[in-house]
Amino acid sequence: MAKASPSNCVVLRRFCFLKWTVAMVVCAAGSLVLWPWSPELKIERMSVKRVRVHPLPPVGADVWITLSVVVKNRGMYWLDLADVDVGVKYRGKKMGHVESEGWHVRGWASTNVDGDLEFSGLPSTEVAHLLEDMAKGEVYFHTVIEVAGEFGFLSIPVPLTFKIILACEVLVNTKSHAIILQHCIYKD
Fold first, then answer.
1. Second label for 5, Cα 20 to 30 Å away, from 23, 63, 88, 121?
2. Could you tell me if 80 and 111 are in contact, meaning their C-beta atoms sit under 8 angstroms apart?
3. Where exactly are the transmembrane stretches of this chain (predicted)?
4. How far apart are the C-alpha atoms of 30 and 23, rounded to whole Å?
């Protein structure tokens, strides 16, 4: 039986090392592609459409707000959004929330969830602040976006569900209806 020369052993060791390195890289890349990532959320548009002040008692105001939330799917699995709920506060006072359901997002795609919020009964103390902020052209809102749903692959639902809560402070330009500043934090 012939003995292996030292140079052959080195070549075999390098080949084994290369083979294991390639296998590990392929496994890591495969797990990144196959991992069911939670979707990204972002408020794309938010504007105060109209404010109607009630001068007679009880003094207050009705406020109409339109908003659009982008749900971006970062994985290859499709998403069925069972519930999309956006709550809006102004100066610590809850104005209301918009709820939507039944949205479908394909893999590596995104969708816009649009909604209108009509709030009546903003207290008179807050009406003055809101009108002052609108005259300045900038209004701060605090929003909480909750999205819940499940993953699926091809036409089969995967038994994995997700729930994401995103709290944002949003500064809206009331003249151009653009979002000037948005600071968001994901919550558990």
1. 23
2. no
3. 20-37
4. 10
Q: Is the pTM of this model over 0.85?
A: no
Residue-level pLDDT at 59: 74
Question: Before 58, cis peptide (omega within 30)?
Answer: yes
Q: Is the separation of the CB atoms in 114 and 94 below 8 Å?
A: no
H or E, element range at 8: helix 6-34
The CA distances from residue 1 to 5, 6, 10, 13, in Å, are: 13, 16, 20, 21
Beta bridge partners of 63: 51, 119
Q: Is residue 46 helix, strand or coil?
A: strand
Q: Which residue, 116, 68, 70, 112, is CA-closest to 95? A: 116
Helix (H) or strand (E) holding 115: strand 110-123
The CATH fold assigned to 37-187 is Immunoglobulin-like (2.60.40)
In this predicted structure, what is the pLDDT of residue 5? 66
Alpha carbons 24 and 62: distance in angstroms, whole number: 60
Selection from 69, 72, 53 nearest residue 61 by Cα: 53
